[in-house]
Amino acid sequence: MPNHIVIALLTVYTMLFAVSAQAASKLPETIKVDRAALTSEPMCDPKISPAWREAQEIEGVKIEASPGCSPDNPAWIAAAVKGTNHISMDTLMKTGLSPDAIIKTDDLDGDGDPDRIIIKLEIMELNGKSPDFPGIIPTFDIAPGIQPGAWVFAPKTSGMSTENFESVRANPLLRLPSPVIRVEVGDIVQIVLENTHYFPHSIHLHGVDHPFSHGEHGGQDGVPQTSEVELMPGGRRVYQFQPRQPGTMFYHCHVQTHTHLTMGLAGMIVIEENKPNNWLQTLNIGAGHVRHPSVAVREQFTQEYDLHYHAMDKELSDMVQKYNDPRLIARDMNQRYDITDATEDYYTLNGLSFPYTLRESLIVVEPDQKIKLRMLNSGGEMIAVHTHGHHATITHYDGVEHNPMAQIMRDVFDMAPAQRLDLKLETINDGKHSYGEGDWLIHDHREKGITTNGMAEGGSMSSIVYKSYLGEHGMPKVSHFGIDLSEFFTKEYYERRYPIWQDLDEWASLGSPAGQMGLDPATQTSLLNALYGLLIGLVIYFIFAKREGIKQSITATVSRLKSPKGSNE
Amino acid sequence: MAKTTLTFLLAGMLVVNGHAMAQEQDKQKDAHDHHDHSGHAATQNEHDHSGHDMDKHDHSGHSMSQQSGSAVDHAAEHGAAADHGHDHSIDHSQHDTQATEHGDLHHHHHMDHDHIMDHEGTMIMGQNLDKLPSSCKSISEEVEITVRAGRKYAAKFPGTAFAFDQQQWHVKPCAKVTWHFINEDDIRHQFMMHGLPKYLYKYGMFHLEVTGPKTVSGTIIVPGSDDTFLVHCDISHHMEKGMKAQLVVGKGGDDIPSIPGVTSYNINDTYQAENLPKASDKAEPNAVMRQITTFTNNNFRNYGMMAIGVLIGLICIPILRAIAFGRKGN
After folding, report:
1. pTM to 2 decimals?
2. Rounded to whole angstroms, how far apart are CA atoms A262 and A377?
3. Which stretch of DSSP H or E encloses residue B176?
4. What residues 123-142 of chain B have any CB closer than 8 A to a CB of chain A?
5. Rounded distance, CA A488 to CA B256, Å?
6. pLDDT interval class at A552 (50, 70, 90)
7. For helices B85-92 and B69-79, what crossing angle results, to 10°?
8. A323 part of contact set with chain B, CB < 8 Å
9. Do residues B19 and B118 both lie within one domain?
10. How confident is the model at residue B298 (pLDDT cuts 50, 70, 90)?
11. With an 8 Å Cβ cutoff, is B121 touching chain A?
């Protein structure tokens, strides 16, 4: 009986050897991911009405055409230009703004535009934890399936924080980045911060001419170590200033800046030159194309774009998704997070990463245009923005005009953290300004800048697209090159579950290999070891069970050996 | 361990809250009425210079509310603190002229049956003054409930940031309830109720919204069956961080989760003790002294333990002996 077992085990052992030998002679098959298995999103968000792209006039406000896929809601622009106090209830209801979000009054210098500007900002959390269900709320995707916890300054809204009662998606006014603010030199501006968030915050007006302290409103620099105490949840603070100099500037929260800025409490603020009848688009929600540029910009340029580059750290963003208790979030952010050991994971342009940048942040141009690009880097590291096919001229550094005689043209624009550059992009096909029409990439040339949590293609990459290369729904036309961008509009791509080169040839030479036939090497080894163990065990058992017999036979042998010896003696 | 403590805490809060709930609504109303107006005065001071008086001329065109005589009456009455402004506005005014007890009715931007909003964003949505739910034959009771909202009400619930002054209200089925929502913060808050019958309330919602410090009032008629309705503030993370309550009609329905002090959270954070500095850590005057005392303390502790061990040993020897001898004896 035991002999049978031994034989059986030996047979299995040999068979295993045979199997592994066979597996080694032929590698696993390639498995192709069925596109139907992916969560495909439409490349252009169908929620946005195509009518929004057209040039139009609302409430007497001329709004330029914006042929990209997701242009700004024209009602937002009308409200931002006229003020929420000067538009009809009908238009206001289309914006979702609070009726006191932007109040414009008093033409103090008599030049035909209002000079008292009140802008009310709230602070909203995106993608934060809920104690009620295992998800996050209100959601904001920077790329398919990528929902980092974030905080933003948001224009004062009215009603719900989500699209509607059934949805967990954020109200479109609550989004990254914090809105671009535009005011005029000489305006008496009040930025009223209503802290709707559960942490203390402030506003620091980086580069904007503002008083250190105001008689009525107290400290104005936003710094809890120098000018004022933190603005607590539920509180309101007025930042009042009358800027004397124009320029592209920066505003951000200065409370625990090393975390709050990264979390998204940072935006661009533009001080425009004082011109007659200069009704400014006070807020450019979501940054990007300025569809109602200032008088000064219209005089010199064909188009204007606000490009806000930002970077976020996943480790930090995760904290608001890990805890609901504000004390625990505060502990992890303030006492446990070490920014000197931190790395940035999400690189965004105007709050979004590729491919969503294609929906909102395309720079749509035509030949022989002069385009003003205002760029801000609110990330924690230097960036190096490269324009394919174009050299642009740097006209302003940090809001101050560079000597026109000394202005230089470049195709890589390095920007330190908090730095602003104004560029003049000329689409003159002369081999220097432009190499001609195309769908030319504009991207951060630190290669991690084109990744999303390390997965390419992502990050702050966008395009300078000539109209002749603009396709259906305002997306770049690339299909005639055999390019299919739809794989980027799936969350599986950014979950790193999609073999990105599988469709480059018919037999998917760089697709995903199937698992090992039969057993994988590790299991094989451990199974063999188990078998060895069993064999050893059996041997020991035999010895033990037959010990009497063995003993006898040994004794017999010994005696047999001894006996001739004995006889010899 | 932490969980048990939490449960006990929650249970304790429930009891406390039960007491709070038992308070008579009328009593509250009287007590708070005076306060309403002081809050209102504060609004005038703090709020106005940021836009109130500046945009007066912009709104002169909006005369929606002036068409109603009762609204004007209400505005006049508002000044007389002795009178109860809300009662009158509800009883006399037509449904679409229900006011935001603020007096500035001529500023009203927007009014229709479902949605009333003024120039500061004070809003009443889904108000119902006279439409009886199909499950009701008549109105069972008319009650007025004052709800206060603000950061300070979160103080009694550790781990929250915003709260209502109460987390639970009880009314009879078919009650006509007028809510006086007092926002005591300097930001926006909402009193948003969900799950009401959709044939009477758009999206099943009743919604008051106001930037404080200010009050807004609105009325609903609750359905005739026992049920529990969610009340919350929908500003991002206000509900998650504590501003959540429930309206219990009759015996109520299923409890709503994660109402501070009333119901438990569906998803709980995990807590652990922190290594926090304590005053006792630095009671000794200087470092050298501390080191010496720590040294002696430690030595004393070690020798002490040793001495105790010896003592136990000494006591045990006779016992062990006795056992050993006893056995031998046997």
Report:
1. 0.79
2. 11
3. strand B176-183
4. 123
5. 40
6. confident
7. 170
8. yes
9. yes
10. low
11. yes
Average pLDDT over residues B24-34: 39
* Partner-chain contact A89 B158, CB within 8 Å: no
Check whether residue B146 and residue B21 sit in a common domain.
yes
Range of the domain at B325: 280-329
pLDDT surpassing 60 at residue B290: yes
Q: Are residues B156 and B78 in the same domain?
A: yes
**B residues 94-113 closer than 8 Å to A (CB):** 109-110
Per CB-CB distance under 8 Å, the chain B contacts of A90 are none
Q: B2 in contact with A at a CB cutoff of 8 Å? A: no
Same-domain status, B287 and B241: no
Q: Kindly determine whether residue A85 and residue B55, on different chains, have CB atoms separated by under 8 Å.
A: yes
Query: Quick check: is B59 in a domain?
Result: yes
Q: Which of residues 183-222 of B touch A (CB under 8 A)?
A: 185-188, 192, 194, 203-205, 207, 209, 211
Radius of gyration of chain A (CA): 33
Interface size between A and B, measured as CB pairs under 8 A: 150
Q: How confident is the model at residue A7 (pLDDT cuts 50, 70, 90)?
A: low
Query: Which among B226, B249, B272 is the end of a domain?
Result: B249
Neighboring chain B residues of A79 at a CB cutoff of 8 Å:
none
* Domain span(s) for CATH 2.60.40.420 in chain A: 74-349
Q: Which single residue is written with the structure tokens 């969503």?
A: A356
Distances (CA, A) of B86 to A131, B216, B260: 36, 10, 29
Same domain, B240 and B285: no
ipTM: 0.86
Do B214 and B292 sit in the same domain of this protein? no
CATH code of A74-349, in short, is: 2.60.40.420
For residue B255, being part of any structural domain is answered with: no
And the tokens for B49? 């210079």
Nearest-neighbour CA in chain A from B166: distance (Å): 18
Total domains, chain B? 2
Residues 273-302 of B with CB under 8 A from A: 274
Is there a domain that residue B99 lies in? Answer: yes
Interface membership of A327 toward B (CB under 8 Å): yes
Please indicate, yes or no, whether residues B84 and B162 belong to a single structural domain of this protein: yes
pLDDT per residue as tens digits for the range A45-86: 777 889 999 999 999 999 999 999 999 999 999 999 999 999
Reported as a single tens digit per residue, the pLDDT across A151-164 is 999 999 999 999 98
Q: Is B38 exposed, middle or buried (0-12, 13-18, 19+ CB in 10 A)?
A: exposed
**Where would I find the H helices in chain B?**
2-21, 25-47, 56-59, 69-79, 85-92, 287-329
Q: Classify residue B22: in a domain, yes or no.
A: yes
